[in-house]
Design goal:
single chain; alpha+beta
Amino acid sequence: MRYLILTLLPLSACLAPQGVMLDSPLAPLVRETLESTRTDLPILVLEDAATLPSGARASCHQDHIVLAREAQDEFDFFVAHELVHWYIDESPYAGLPHFIEEGLADWIACDLMGGLEGRIAQNIEIGTMSVDPRRLAVTGAGWSYLSREERQSLTRAGFDLVRRLGFEKLRVLLRENASPMDYLRAAGVAEGR
């Protein structure tokens, strides 16, 4: 388990309106965890939460990452989470169903920040597999149209699948072109297989 604590200036004091290059010590750790071949760093842009999808505190785009000003208290967690999205397309995990990618992003961020055990306990207590199966196929493009509660529920389900399956089994299922339901079956939370 890795624990990383960063000391940063308040973002409002160091970010220009157009953003700055995110030169974070988290980037190589996320890249290494994902075994990503992508090496560039994103631009970090600070915005008001009202400009992000309902209830979101950060988002990853093709050429930048957005962090809500209100999320500065959890800066490292959100940066690590969004860096997973930044680096995943050039990794062995490219193509995961989006809800599992969100769960993987939370898993890696929690692992790097030292909160993994707490998040695992919280997800087990909540009962993460109580999601609407019709939502399992939502792609990244449709993610922002879901309610905050739906996104949270799906992310918890994805996180629990990462816990149950592990990184290697995720890769195997990807190579097999598994459907979202195949991941649930492999984890023993759906009938069949």
